[in-house]
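INTERNAL AUDIT FORM
Audit reference: QA-55
Scope: verify that the stored structure record matches its stored sequence.
Auditor: D.O.
Record contents follow.
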Amino acid sequence: MKDLDPKPTGDYIVPPTEQSMDDWPRVRRTNWWVRGTLVLFACGLATVFYIATRVNPYDANGNPLRSGSHQTLGMPACQFKKMTGMPCPSCGMTTSFAHLVRGDVWNSLRANWVGTGLAVFCAFLIPWCLASAVRGRYLGVRRLEATLAFLVGLFTVVMLGRWGVVLLLTVFD
């Protein structure tokens, strides 16, 4: 019977090739405009936190508000709430940010816990943007587009889920 392997290998087995992390293709550095955009994004987020310090999340008696604190900046009341009598999905987020920058975590959570989570996420995002800009690579992220799509989708689902619960509680109140 003829051997199927035309080249005799002797008494040894050829080990499979192993690929280490060093063999992976290196991630390319980001362009200058991507780095600049990351820095501008970090500055924009820092500005949001600065504006949150200018918003007064307490009423005239010092009681914490749950929503509507954006009116201290001269903005109009929530049109959705005005027309329907029900809060919109983002009602209380500005108030939540304003409470959180003052260290009032409990009232931040009471105003809008999704806003509290978003504020904490944004607080971590500022140094991430700056470090990624300096390094020239996204820290801990291989594909930014997929990560952004996932995070935006997750935030939207959580925000709308919270809103659904708030609407149910408002209707049955």
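Auditor finding: record pair retrieved intact. The longest helix spans residues 105-135.
Action required: none
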